Input
Amino acid sequence: MGAAPILPGFHPDPSICRAGKDYYLINSSFEYFPGVPIFTSRDLLTWRQIGNVLDRESQLNVSPGITGAGKGIYAPTIRFHDGRFWMATTNITDVVKGHLIVHAEDPAGPWSDPVYTSGAIGWDPDPSWDEEGQCHLAWADPRGGIAHATVDPVTGQLLSATELIWQGTGLSSPEGPHLFQRNGWWYLLVAEGGTGPGHAVTIGRARSITGPYEAHPEGPLLTHRSTSHPVQNTGHADLVELIDGSWAMVYLGVRPRGEFPRFHVNGRETFLAGVDWADEWPVVVPDRYQEPRPATSFVDYFGAPELHSRWISPGVPPISFCRFDGSGGVTLTSGRRPDDREAKNLLAVRARDAEWQVNVEAPAGDLSLIVRIDDAHWAGVERRGDVLSARAVIGPMDQTLASKNGIPVGVPLAVRAVGSPQQHGVRTGPDRVELGYLQDGFTVLAAIDGRYLSTEVAGGFTGRVIGVEALTGQARVDRFEYSAAASEPAAIPDFSEVQP
Output
């Protein structure tokens, strides 16, 4: 059990809170705009996105291009206190300003413009309140360990000196702190071991919020390191007390595939576990909940006058380059030049399944449909007039893999990820990414090994997204379909002799 995420795809660093019967969960978003997706649920297994916390340029400063990758929003925390929702996070792009804090009466928004905690430098902030109503802020400090100060969350002003209160259990990189009270104890939940194979959830407790903290005598609350569990890199957790008085934990993990060293492609995902208490310590119960079956497939005809909250763009607001005329479809204003490598106005969604297919109907304009980790690791189909080309950018390599001319503009573009047969001793990647179009079924122009679009190759903290972008001029998209399973791999025709 515990092998299926409640939020599949690039949804790392989960934080959760409860307000009455409803649960709310948010995730890191890094360089993508809008920032901090927010979801709601009644059963902890079925989640519905209700918006994004940071959805205005006055709230979020991120940058496109490879220099913006890996920056932006790190490890937000959501809390409900005294009838109001609060979210604290760090925008690494503006880290010198301190952490940012916003609030809202309605978690679906609008959220306030941010205030900054000048003088509190680090990442992964966590707001909590004591019994007197004083707000405390904990965060990962560059000096190593977890820092603390009291703060006015409305203004961001620090009300005390900053001090290190715990340096963790001795594993590397203590971060992602969450403070909470129970039965006279303050608990400090942290992530340690780095967000890779050594990742772990650890915890300490103290009678005072500033310590001294004693570590759990039995070591990490949760880790899958050095195991054969299909979910690895487990860590960065948050706890929530349920309406019946029981407890649960959300945490991140990845699902690597392929042969050694194995590769994860959809980023760090959000998982769920139960929590019991023994001797005033939490105990994780991994198999308390049934396996979730989130619905990931969708079709978007862009009929509404605004974008669904699932749509994101690296470094720029999607609404800045999307135009609606009320007749359905969306017009994408000019994006990158055809020979450029870096996205300029990419309208994208997160890949959420091990196998999937995306079909795009675009009746006008030159455009690209790509699968992307970052601007140095992507592959896709590009249409210029009646010529379709399959292109891959992997680090310094930028290559047109195949082309075919004479393709009518009305023919849908398509990309998909299909599983690679796992054979012991054979160097298989996690999957195969196929690039093509729909004409008498899926016609493949070219395919690449999915390892080249994985975190293990690209680095960074995100996962695959699939997006469309106009090339030079405008392009119109009438239909974008994401299906949660791809068909069997097709034979790849040889178009090597065909010139555009």
